[in-house]
Amino acid sequence: MLVCESRKGTPCGILNMSHSDKNPLVTLHDSRGRIVFAQPLIFHSAAEVLYSQPWEWVGTEEEQTRIRDAFQKVLFDRESITIRAKFIFQGEPTLYECHAVPVDTNEVTVMTTSIPIYEEDEDMGLTPRELECLRQLISGSQTSEIATNMGVKSTTVNTYKQRLKDKIGVDSLAGLIAWGCKHLRS
Fold first, then answer.
1. Where would a tag sit more exposed on the chain, N or C end, judged by fewer CB atoms within 10 A?
2. What is the DSSP letter of 20?
3. Residue that wins the pLDDT comparison between 46 and 75
4. 3-state DSSP: the chain helix, strand, coil percent, rounded to 5?
5. In whole angstroms, what is the distance from residue 31 CA to residue 16 CA?
6. What does the pLDDT read at residue 59?
7. Quick one: which of 28, 29, 30, 2 has its CA closest to 14?
8. Do 87 and 69 contact (CB within 8 A), yes or no?
9. What 3-state DSSP class applies to 23?
10. Which domains does the chain have, with CATH numbers?
11. What digits encode the pLDDT tens for the residues 120-134?
12. Tens digit of pLDDT for each residue in 147-177?
């Protein structure tokens, strides 16, 4: 929830806004990763958000590194990426899925849309590596591609796929992909 103020600085009521599929957090970033635009702001004022960097909003060094690496991939390799990260707003970590794309202007180099994910991955009983494998499967990657991307052998990817089928309760690759499309974002 956000308290808005009129032009004279007096409260005009509470806006019941939240980030969702229909109302994602949109951020524009400069070449150093700094946020130069963010809308809608729900948890913080513009002064708190502008010129901060997305890796400042997470709690662990591992997540900071992962977000920095993803940003550099978009910036330098000019590839779109999708990652999940737990951003900490008002002391509470919230899992967000962030989709970042390169932008070709002098001031803005990356645009990101972020939506909260309310069903935690851990609740599904899937390991992070199984989820990574499943996300790549639903994005159309073949076993050999997934193995290369994950730095494992193809047999390991096949093991992940079998474990996923067992845990989810499907008996085919098509069923696994259909489940992934329904329950995960690519």
1. N
2. -
3. 75
4. 40, 25, 35
5. 33
6. 87
7. 2
8. no
9. coil
10. 2-118 (3.30.450.20), 122-183 (1.10.10.10)
11. 444 567 888 988 899
12. 999 999 999 999 999 998 888 778 888 888 8
- Mean pLDDT confidence for 20-31: 79
**What is the per-residue burial (b if ≥16 Cβ within 10 Å, else e) of 96-130?**
bbbbbebeeeeeebbbbbbbbeeeeeeeeebeeeb
Out of 60-64, 74-78, 91-95, pick the least confident.
Answer: 91-95
Tokens, residue 21: 């599929």
79 CB-near residues (< 8 Å, 6+ apart): 73, 102
Report which of 77, 88, 156, 84 is spatially closest to residue 124, judged by C-alpha positions.
84
How far is 36 from 27, CA to CA, in rounded Å?
7
